[in-house]
Amino acid sequence: MAREKRDATKVSYMIDNELLKQLEDFCERTGRTKTKVIEMAISLYLEEHKDDK
């Protein structure tokens, strides 16, 4: 069965090597994809800083 298409855009960013290692370790432990973890992290960050100017 094919995956359902997502309303998403492919992006490319540079990330610190140590931070990437931590992300990969976290994903391995939790079974989450890097995409999902990064989406969750950005969403949480933006929610916490929505009133910043």
Mean pLDDT: 95
Distance between the termini: 46 Å
Radius of gyration: 14 Å
The geometry reads as: extended
Helix/strand-derived class? mainly alpha
Could you characterize what this model shows?
With 53 residues, the chain is mostly helical. Helices cover 55% and strands 0% of the residues. The chain has two helices and no strands. The chain has helices at residues 17-30, 34-48. The protein is extended. The mean pLDDT is 95.
Summarize this entry quickly.
With 53 residues, this protein is an all-alpha fold. It is built from 2 helices and no strands. The longest helix has 15 residues, at 34-48.
Features:
mainly alpha
Write the layout of secondary structure elements.
Elements: H1 17-30, H2 34-48
